[in-house]
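Example with several molecule types.
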Amino acid sequence: ILNVEQSPQSLHVQEGDSTNFTCSFPSSNFYALHWYRWETAKSPEALFVMTLNGDEKKKGRISATLNTKEGYSYLYIKGSQPEDSATYLCALGGAQKLVFGQGTRLTINP
Amino acid sequence: GAGVSQTPSNKVTEKGKYVELRCDPISGHTALYWYRQSLGQGPEFLIYFQGTGAADDSGLPNDRFFAVRPEGSVSTLKIQRTERGDSAVYLCASSQRSGGGYEQYFGPGTRLTVT
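Resulting structure tokens for the full complex:
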């Protein structure tokens, strides 16, 4: 059974500050790592799909890195804004399905 | 273009009743997935369709759960004799192609509450 762990479970950050959180996964038989942002009452929105060790991807103020040898990915948010408040999910992509972590709930305090 | 849609957005039902949850995937997407998110947990895989056939139903918790996709587009998740433990957000996703490296596009989910 694949185990994907995210930390911390929740995070409160002051507007304007930068933050980051972690996704850990088994390093063997790696295929792909997905990051999603899920705002309340909306659809989970895909942020990144990462497949190569050392991958770094960026979308505006959000970026992610991937280390498949040690089994972790970091998501960074620079200069947090209230609209960044959401649950951030990482998921390990296997042959077909996704295996999700429990998410990091991020709240930006104005 | 239109994204993945799910109906109803909310469903409250009594224990023991039958419910159907519908998913309309993005047009042309051949792969369709159902996930379930219980409180405090990440989404958990239920079943995956490639075209009309269920390619992997290993995540269905028991035989009260069943899903169909008769024409390779719309899918319905059916739950018989609902139990309080079935209360969760049921998410549907579609993908242009199957495979864990391809982006899955999610609907907003159906929140099921069993009283």
